[in-house]
Amino acid sequence: MVNAIVLLNVERDKVNDVAERLAEMQGVSEVYSVAGRYDLVAIIRVRSNEDLADTVTNHMRNVKGILKTETMLAFRAYSRHDLERVFSIGAQ
Hints:
Layout: E1 2-10, H1 15-23, E2 28-33, E3 40-46, H2 49-59, E4 66-73, H3 83-88
Antiparallel strand pairs: 1-3, 1-4, 2-3
């Protein structure tokens, strides 16, 4: 499992539209509107680095209204939830 956090600057009048488009995208598990330097934060959870590259460079890039992104790759998750187990249900 590859986890990444994408910080996004978005055109002011398109924040809601961009958030909704991202939330519908395969690999994007959550999208948050936030205060501060960025407008949105997208959490990506995919199976491989190739899937991450496809999500960020092929799919997110085509969403109109995104001005700038910064992608952070997570090395390790510290959580009370067993994310690997949750995302492996039904996988063969």
